[in-house]
Write a structure and sequence with these properties.
The structure holds 2 protein chains of 2 kinds.
Chain A (H helix, E strand, L loop, with lengths): L1 H14 L2 H8 L1 E3 L9 E2 L2 H7 L4 H33 L5 H9 L6 H14 L6 H26 L2 H9 L4 H12 L1 H17 L2 H7 L6 H11 L2 H25 L2 H5 L5
Antiparallel strand pairs in A: 1-2
Chain B lengths: L2 H44 L14 H8 L1 H32 L6 H8 L7 H12 L4 H8 L19 H26 L2 H8 L4 H30 L2 H6 L7 H10 L6 H30 L4
Classes of the chains: A mainly alpha, B mainly alpha.
Chain lengths: 262, 300
Amino acid sequence: MLPSAVVSLWVALVILPVVPLVIWSAAFSWRWPDLLPTAWSGRAWRYVFSPTTQVRAGLIGSSTVALLTMMLALAIGTPAGIAVGRMAFRGKRAIELLLLAPFIVPGLIVTMGIQIVFIHLRLADTMQGVVFAHLMPALPYVIISVAGVATNVGVQVEEQARSLGATSWQTFIHITLPLLRPGLAVGGLFAFLVSWSQYTSTLIIGGGKVQTLPLLVYAFTRSGDNPIAAALALLFVAPAVVALALASRTLRVRQSVVGGRL
Amino acid sequence: MSRALVTRYALRVTRQRPTALLLLLPSLAVIALFLIGGVGFAFAQSLGMFALLGDSEVTLRHYGDALRDPDLRAALVVSLRISVVSTLIALILSIGMALLLRKRLRGDGILRLLFQLPLPIPHLVGAVGITLLIAQSGLIARLLHAAGLLEERSRFPLLVGDRFGAGIVIVYVWKEVPFITFLLLAALSAIGEQYEEAARTLGASAWQRFRHVLVPLLFPVMLSASLIVFAFTFGAFEVPYVMGRTYPKALPVWAYEGFNNVDLNQRPEALAVSVLIALLATVIVLAYGSLSRRLLTNGR
């Protein structure tokens, strides 16, 4: 009884911050000390879903960048995940640490430092530049996810395929990739979400020219327009929450931990 | 296994080394490029190279300027305080949560799902939501007022925009507890109940089982989780930026504002500070690396 009560109390506290977001998003004005807004309004949500405002541009920007980041991260990270998950080689420990370093080294510093490189490469203020900038934090998720699945799955089937005469490429396409699908799905999902939530790298590399949702959330928060900021914030987290709710049904505990770095 | 099979696998492992490198190359290239390129160029610029304004030089004076700057020292104290407090509170709460969540609970499925809610929510949104909750005109203050417990807004404790950064700590704790708890739960399920059972049959009390059996067994995980959370909160920018007071700033905010300053001469000093932050983070990674290797293989 008591354990349930304590956990329930904690969970109640955890979901509490969502409440003012929901209320504010539908408020016309909500002055102190009212418990609920005296006047409600659909203004914020109309603004958010209107096709003519910046929100539409931000949505498209965020989705495009996140999709591109996800595809790039999968292409680059999957082979690495296979190597890490299955192969033993000298210096593996050091390489594993390097691959995990983006989790620890603050992204802000890396972004500030590399901005000048991007300027010289004409990648600054471009969408491609932002995608590349998102790649570094997204890549480890794909690698960890694929490695986790690759360790347990498929080696024997691959051996059999090879012994039956399949080339390495054929084995990879028809045996390895399908078997690794859960790892690819989870890794790709996290890569998408990492890119979706990026703020500082988009701001610094994109220079304000690449418009994404988190930038808008921040701008409206700073400007004090609580209703729109709240509505945007809710819109912004919706895909992540839904995706992870679906994913956690099929995930083991260890993999859901990885989401903590958003 | 037959001798033929053993030889075949042994050969396979040796032949794998070049293949492994090939598979890893793109990823290593990307990460090395960013890490070394990012921190490298930050370092170069902090030394005065690639100056955007005026002549380039190579000098350590920006580091000197930074370290002598009282604003920097204030920012360092703020960041350290926030990181230490956040990590400690999150760790203690997580240990409690992990011990509770180990067992089957009433309302299990929905509780566990909601427990994970902070995980997919970015820090930015968590900060906005929590600010609307704990500000002096926030929801909690209004609830207290409605209950007759609070007369004026100003009587509600200042949690956002305060000197200490209490609101920032709350956001970090909110976000990190599920993360650390899951790490602990994974470790607990790997350890199993056998040691506690043995201790119990020898007459150990619950506290003794916790203190002398679980804590030593969980120590490596607790330590690495703490290091990760500490390093993250120390270098994280978004939450203090959205919630923080204008003075003293948290260290990453200080660095960012210096970097973005219209006066481009501020940039090298800001980057010097950033390099120092990155250095600290790297030290922590290395400590984590060597610690986990030593602790996990400690002849158990």
